[in-house]
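User: Continuing from earlier, I have the next pair ready.

Assistant: Great, send them over.

User: Here they are, in order.

Assistant: Folding the first of the pair now:
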Amino acid sequence: MSQTSENTLKVAHQGFKYFTHGLATGEWNDFLEILTEDFNFWFPQGKYHGLNVGKQQAKEFFQYVSQAFNTGLTITSLERVTSNETTVVFEFCDEGNLMGEPYKNRVAVSFDVREDKICGYREYFGSNGKSN
């Protein structure tokens, strides 16, 4: 494995740890600190559907996520981690309450890494939010 790949994995795994904590607690500061100022993210639906740019937009998005899952969202299993030189994809199962309704899903998120920061995020989910 190249030094670049090792660094990408290290940064992404740290970011995923912060991301998991943010989902569970609504505390996003550590995750936001690891993002570049020009961070961009893609989300598949709702208010933030499509491409979003900037760390401030990310802060608003993740606060919105915490409001929607106001009792927290728990990652119940990490199914797979796949990576290349600049991107790491985490596939996982999660559950919680979405706006008061039971929620379960299988999700994939990718982190793009530049040096020691995360510069991009994409989220993919395809089930109806109630799958196993």
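And the other member of the pair:
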Amino acid sequence: MSSTAPQKLPFWAILQDQSAVDSQARLNQAGRYDLSESEQKWVARQPALHARGYSLRTRYIPGWQPSWIGTNRRALYCEDSICTIIPSVMDATRQEDGQLVAIKTVSESQELKIAQFLTSLDEPRNHCVSVLDVFPDSLEPGITLMVMPYLRPYNNPPMATIGELFAFIDQTLEGLSFLHSHRVAHRDVAPSNIMMDASALFPEGHHPVRLQATPDAVYDAKYHPRTGRPVRYLYIDFDCATVFDDGKPSMVLGVIGRDREVPELSDLVPYDAFKVDIYALGNMYFKEFFITHKHMEFLQPMIDHMKQHDPSARPSIEEVIRQWGAIRSNNKSRSSWRLALKTETSVSRLVEGIQNVAMNGLESVLTYLT
């Protein structure tokens, strides 16, 4: 067998016999872990990014060689075997303070201008991802690199209580109110475009691609419950967004956005972009929570109001916020209730509770088992 992996590694990170080592070597030779074409572009950018103050993971440093070659380490648990998922976005570490960031390639487009405009507005209700840095791409003319804080999907890890759902609705409504008050229609409100600053939940960090793993990709990452911690939800991705001048109609054309259930989308008949945002956010609440979780009947009046087929009958965002305030006040006693999936059983609930205790200690056991 090849040279032995460090003894501190757990058994699952080590190949246990020579046949497994040989099998992994064949995968290496077949190109299983080679850099993709899009990854090679980030390797080419690495020197310029490093000079700008951003460090990429080892995999993207020119001349990289897999760390498991010549050992009996399992490639799956070697950090440099993990490739980026979205070709236009790369995770990086800001050298000055160690902050994890996301670097996105964008054209000189409305997306960049809108994102920078929103970043310039210093308001507590601004729930839009910030632009930390902007500079020309060293590789492709006409492309700009936009640096933003690293964010996780809003529902990863899942919410545990109805009170945590309350906080999510509070922030997403407030964020949409902020956008609309500045005459910005997002036009692509969807689960993938609302993300979470979860740094308070993962004090020891996590891997930026393999989200459930520690930064070294060897262990399961430990996290705290959301309740009582400063989790912030943020709108991202403004490539479909439109800014309207004060006093000008908010009418647009185009069948765009991830939510194609919005009834008025059209390439021919103008429609109100702000009312599309209302429908799409209501539809997100409907699909992500109302039809999937128990005890969500209190959301129905607001969702029905937001999802009316006739756009002119839908409320403004301020009207939604007023309606939500009354609903929230009338249901505050539910805050500590578990946010339970309709598909869960008593056995799955018990298993989830045991797993959570193993991961995070006794701090949140009552949240899961009561």
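Worth noting for the second one:
The mean pLDDT is 92. The longest strand covers residues 100-107.
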